[in-house]
Amino acid sequence: MDFRFTNISLENRLGQIIGLGVSYVFTEARDYVFVTAPAQQASSLVGKSAEHFAFQLLRRFELDTKRFVMIELRGTGDNQSLWRWRFEWVGESPLSARCEEVSSPTQRQQLLNLLEPDTPKKVVGS
Fold it and tell me: If we measure between CA atoms, which residue out of 69, 71, 124, 63 comes closest to residue 92?
């Protein structure tokens, strides 16, 4: 599947500007921010700066930490995998970033369905 992501610039933990693909999808219960690194970047790009990216995305979309869910899409085609990032929040500061692969076929399909074009999305500003 090929999903639409908008390229936005975020600062990594070293203060360098990094382009990430982002898709923001809101539901009644959660605000999902899907991220994907450029194909030429290592899959560890998000992991190295997950807390910094989460903070910037929370601010950019004016989200509540209780509703915020960051999902990383890695790979392409049949090699796609989804990784759910979890944070401990102190105010609006994410700490202790950790991720786990979404391995349940049902959860995986539900998340992929959120990326379908007919799902309500907020416009991503640059």
Answer: 63
